[in-house]
Amino acid sequence: MRALKGVSFELMPGEVHALLGENGAGKSTLIKVITGAHAPDEGVLTIGEEQLRSLTPAHARALGIACIYQQPALFPDLTVAENIGLRLKKPAPFSVVKRAAQREKAIELLKRVGAEISPDAEVHELSMPEQQLVEIACALGSGARIVIMDEPTASLTQKEQHLLFGVVRDLRANGVGVVYISHRLEEIFALADRVTVLRDGESVGTHAVKDLTESAMIKLMVGREVATLYPPAESEPGEVVLSLRGITCAEGGVHGVDLEVRAGEILGMAGLVGAGRTELARVLFGITPADSGEIHLKGEKVSIATPRDAISQGIAYVPEDRRRHGVILEMPIAHNITMAVHPVLFPGTWLRKKRESEMAKDFIRDLGIKAYGPEAPGGNLSGGNQQKVSVSRWLATKPKLLILDEPTQGVDVGAKSEIHRIIRELAKEGLAVLMISSDLPEVLGMSDRIAVMRGGTVTAVLPGGADAHDVMSAALGQNGKEVA
Questions:
Q1: Is 233 within the bounds of a domain?
Q2: Are residues 282 and 211 in the same domain?
Q3: What is the average pLDDT score of the chain?
Q4: Is residue 20 part of a domain?
């Protein structure tokens, strides 16, 4: 099977050209061809006036091609200034590093991208969004003519996203061509001039963004209408499964949280970055246990001091960063799915591979995981299918409460629709679901009720029919509206 088949793509100077497609459509392979990581079997690359059959990474950089990946490729034990310096100038043998000049250049470039980061900080001390801004500073400093941005806002705060958009517009104004890859269609409409859509390794069209609607763009990507991106609720919430009273955790910055989640209910959790949503999830799963307050599960007071306690009490947690905490990429799907239930699945000394394989096949079928079988490595799957494997692992524990942290972050619109369907089906079967999401349309479209957090506490609980203004007002601390 070919990853790319006869793809044509054109980027003009001073243009933001979006590259869209579902996971597995060929976007990453095309980027690897442009940056010299992969050599094409056929076709021609034209950079300026130069025609090439293939590139090497070094030649691509020399031609002014820079790529900013979703996972920054920086040296963790070097400072920000040293990382930027290495990208801008290859050191000659026995040369003296002019650290003062290197530092001044780093300060200048960081200022251009609006990053409040010390040039003397070591990269491993930085958050993922800060590392991404350093990568952008490196690209600016290298004088790149072509800048490729792969899901650049996936881990950025709202403030950092606005800074990034300003940088993209500055690049366009200075004649730089920008290839922009994102699953967030609102960003495409805000930034891009043209869009090329890939499907199954082929380009299905290039269009001016102003000539497309969101539904037309989705249809180009998935080859069909996705009218049920947010499937409606089909059941009434039942008994209270989780009840929190005055939950406080100094380490996580959580304080005085009162909350209830019912069987068959999707409780969406909204709030700005840093509001305390993930920190509350970590408290509930025993990663950073509560200092005070009470947790009740189905009316019974419980103590959760470790993740083992949480699992034994019927709490499952699918974390935000699936590549670090959700799926072990080198392990087969079957191992990933069963690792949380080994004591139950294998009560004796020996692993029972047949039993493990059968369980994995059931989840592959039920959740629609696209893979050649249970032995496929997790790293071979698309982002959406990795997320389904991560969910399967915790469904195998037969939980009472499922906590989902950013369940569709970084997945394409088709996979997002599938994940939403799965979540709604789980609720229909009686599972209590606590869904944390920074995607406001997702919160509004999927939630039976919406809890809004600000400053480590719940400021409002709104009905599922609440509008975006009510949610954002509560997130900003303005006229939060409490609902019983």
A1: no
A2: no
A3: 85
A4: yes
How far apart CA 440 and CA 26 sit, in angstroms, is 28
The sign of the torsion formed by the CA atoms of 468, 470, 473, 477 equals: negative
Q: What's the pLDDT tens digit per position in 281-316?
A: 999 999 999 999 999 999 999 999 999 999 999 999
CA-angle at 9, arms to 3 and 10, nearest 5°: 160
Sequence-separated (6 or more) residues with CB below 8 Å from residue 259: 242, 243, 244, 247, 267, 451, 458, 461
pTM over the 0.70 mark: no
95 C-beta neighbours (distance < 10 Å), count: 9
The answer to whether residues 289 and 203 belong to one domain is no
> Which helix (H) or strand (E) segment is 245 a member of?
strand 240-249
| DSSP structural state of residue 370 | -
Separation CA 278–CA 252 (nearest Å): 9
pLDDT of 248 strictly over 80: yes
Which of 191, 222, 253 is a domain's end point? 222
Q: Specify the residue for token string 């094409």.
A: 40
The mean pLDDT value for 67-85 works out to: 86
Residue 481 maps to a domain: no
Lookup result for tokens 């209590």: 432
Number of domains in the chain: 2
**Pair of tokens at residue 420:** 């939403």
Q: Is 295 helix (H, G, I), strand (E, B) or coil?
A: strand
For residue 290, tell me if it sits in a domain.
Answer: yes
pLDDT of residue 228: 62
pLDDT digits (tens, 9 = 90+) for 154-207: 666 667 778 788 889 988 998 999 999 987 888 899 999 999 998 878 888 899
216 and 245: one domain? Answer: no
- Paired strand residues for 203: 198
